[in-house]
Amino acid sequence: MSKLLVSTTVNGDPQQFLCDPDTSLLDALREEMDLTGSKEGCGSGDCGACTVVLDGKMVCSCLVLAPEAEGRQVSTIEGVAEGNQLHPIQRQFLEHGALQCGFCTPGFIVASKALLDHNPDPSETEVRYWLAGNLCRCTGYDKIVRAVMDAAAELRQDRRTAA
Amino acid sequence: MSSPAYHAPETIEQAVALLAGDAGARPLAGGTDLIVQMRSGRNAPSAIVDLKRIAGLSGIRALPGGGFAIGAATPCTALKDDAALAAAWPGVVEAANLIGSVQVRNRATMAGNLCNASPAADSVPALVAAGATCLVAGPNGQREVPVEAIPAGPGKTSLAPGEVLVEIRLPAQLGADAYLRSIPRSEMDIAVVGAGVSLVLGAGGVCTAARVAIGAVAPTVVLVEAAGAALIGGKLDDAALEAAADAVRAACRPIDDKRGTAEYRTAMAGVLVKRTAKIALERAHKNQGRSQA
């Protein structure tokens, strides 16, 4: 079977790569584009460690075929910080100690950003339901939820200051 | 194992030709079942026919007369974003948005949920209760069939070779609907029992039409006509609800598995149908109040 040429946009940059038709978007990101921030935990859409944003919607990149990304916009954990400037969600994860081994963290941060991008003032219940597709076996989730709530408050404050 | 071919046709006719020309080809909508099955080796298609580039297959159209047509490639979260659909058929929209996580629901479709033919598919009892139909395209043209005609058993559908489901159609809402499922967790689980109820109320709040469908208690989702009949002609008092629950328990043919015993599933199906019917009734009263106001 011949390889497919896929042209897509990742974190604003045009990307082209060759892949087998059944390669996952996750494998293409990691193996072809060297974007190894997104992780494979389960490979079946249960753990969320591979969460990326595809055309504005968060998805499990392990359950997207790489050729499906043709002409689409992909955002990954690598696009969350601006240069050396951490995103408030990333900083709050550090301040709250919302990670231990860190394997699930990229997925949690991409998913949390997807939430706060469209809901700047979520309740704790909304945060917990939104993150139900992201598994963490270290933290017990509490510090993650507090980090997201505080990041949301900080982002609201930033918006007020900017306005 | 060799890699399958990948096709992204732009018309239904091209998709049908690709599927009809290769018995091992499988349609891809959201991929949240198909890709998992490919990874586990349970499904090894020779070709994948991605439906998402076909114009008109992603999105919701209002039909003349008040119904809705939902393209086969429409993700579950898009249903929630359509205010008119969510107001008319909250049971269907909620059922579709119980599946998996947000990540999964941003990809998963009701058409895929239906064609994956799991007995525990959450959106299917709600669609069957709603009286929804499917538009199926194939080498011999298109046909419209009731949703309950699609699943033929666990993992099996009644679709003929080369056929693909292109649209789910919901009728105009004349009453109200609801769906509930029983799971041991609060999210990210597969139904142990699911129940969908759709009701129409007439003058004085008397039930004039009712459809009851149950999931995860038989090889396919089951439309329990006797349960619907038990609700018609009254105001869903305790006796009518118990009669509907009896009919539902009698229709259960569940298996024992790690999620629940056959006995538990049967008992819970009765409980769940009563709870679901009460929610549908409350919504129907509200809708009736609104239309008379």
Describe this structure in words.
The complex is a heterodimer of chains A (163) and B (293). By secondary structure, chain A is of the alpha+beta class. In chain A, 36% of the residues lie in helices and 15% in strands. Chain A is globular. The termini of chain A are far apart. Among the domains of chain B are: 1-50, Uridine Diphospho-n-acetylenolpyruvylglucosamine Reductase, domain 2 (2-Layer Sandwich); 176-292, 2-Layer Sandwich (Enolase-like, domain 1). In chain B, helix 9 (225-231) runs antiparallel to helix 10 (238-251).
Structural class of chain B: alpha+beta
Structural class computed from helices and strand pairing of chain A: alpha+beta
Q: In CATH terms, what is the architecture of the largest domain in chain A? A: Roll
List low-confidence stretches of chain A.
Answer: none
CATH class of the largest domain in chain A: Alpha Beta
Order of helices and strands of chain A: EEHEEEHHHH
CA-atom Rg of chain B in angstroms: 19 Å
The CATH level-2 architecture of the domain at 176-292 in chain B is identified as 2-Layer Sandwich
- Tell me, briefly, the overall form of chain A: globular
Major sheet of chain A, described briefly? 5 strands, mixed
What would you report as the Rg of chain A, rounded to the nearest angstrom? Answer: 16 Å
The CATH topology name of the largest domain in chain A reads Ubiquitin-like (UB roll)
Round the mean pLDDT of chain A to the nearest integer and report it. 97
State the helicity of chain A in percent bands: 25-40%
Report the major sheet of chain B: 5 strands, antiparallel
Could you give the count of β-strands of chain B? 14
Annotated CATH homologous superfamily of the largest domain in chain A: Beta-grasp domain
Strand order in the largest sheet of chain B = 4-5-10-6-7
In the CATH hierarchy, the third-tier topology of the domain at 176-292 in chain B is known as Enolase-like, domain 1
